[in-house]
Amino acid sequence: MRSSNPVFSRRGFSRDNGYAGFNAQPQAGGPAVGTQGTPYAGNNPYAQNPYAQQDLQYGAPPQAPATTGRMTMDDVVMRTATTLGVLVLTAALAWALLPVDTANINKSYGIAIGAGLVAMVLGFVQAFKRKASPPLILAYAALEGVFLGVLSSIVDNYIASGAAMQAVLGTMAVFVAVLVAYKAGWIRVNRRFYGFVMAAAMGFILLMAVNLLFAVFGGGDGLGFRSGGLGIVFGIIGVLLGACFLALDFKQVEDGIAYGAPREEAWLAAFGLTMTLVWIYLEFLRLIAILQGND
Asked: What angle do CA 27, 30, 34 make, to 5 degrees?
């Protein structure tokens, strides 16, 4: 099962990294084959876990992650906290050091847009790298924080006072709610769920791209998908999609730990979760701006 998160979709614990998850299926008419060509019995509980190959050769189950350098939940939590901490710190610094008053707003906004574009490039570079690069991930988080800090300050000062804090609280609430629902089994992440989320995400992104093109060439807000009544509807859809992304990310992390993904993969988990949380925060920020502002 691959997540809809662009990081997990391209790199996250994929077959290329050795962890195939639901992608490793028994071949028709024969035993399952691991990613390195090692045959397994069809009823072997470790048939989809290439990290168990060496252990299975000796007839023993995989050793505990703590003794083999495999990813644990503590690793994921620590890397995610570090990545988010860098993002929040730079966002706070950007808010404080890049004023958005009448005299400086254009300069600050220009810096924020530049930081956002560079962060996007770094995100794509990491998504297509074969291995996680902690400096690259932390640089992405730092630049994304600059973008979010200035953007949040503009919305908070000119459109909807208190919007940034409300968006933060909303993002935290969604994260906790999805985590609880996932752990309680209320959300079943399977192929049908994955297919639905991917189709919805592709449709959403396509509509937003069309709206952006009309806005660039026609002025205003294009087709109106991001303002007024339609903006509220699409904002809610964006938040719900972000919640679905979180569920897919939780499944991906859970499977990576269960199948013994290498410890460095925790950085990819942190990167993917950070991207999803940024998505949710931006959707909340826009939604609050529409509901409380004049746009």
From this structure: 55
Q: How many CB atoms lie within 10 A of CB 37?
A: 6
Rounded to the nearest 10 degrees, the angle between the axes of helix 265-292 and helix 134-158 is: 10
- Residue 201 predicted with pLDDT over 70: yes
pLDDT of 46 above 60: no
Beta-carbon count within 10 A of 109 CB: 17
Tell me the residue type at 201.
Answer: A
Q: How far apart are CA 126 and CA 56, in angstroms?
A: 33
- The reported pLDDT for the residue numbered 142 is 97
pLDDT in tens, 162-177: 999 999 999 999 999 9
CA dist list (Å): 201 to 195, 212, 277: 10, 16, 15
pTM above 0.85, yes or no: no
CA–CA distance, 235 with 225 (Å, rounded to integer): 9
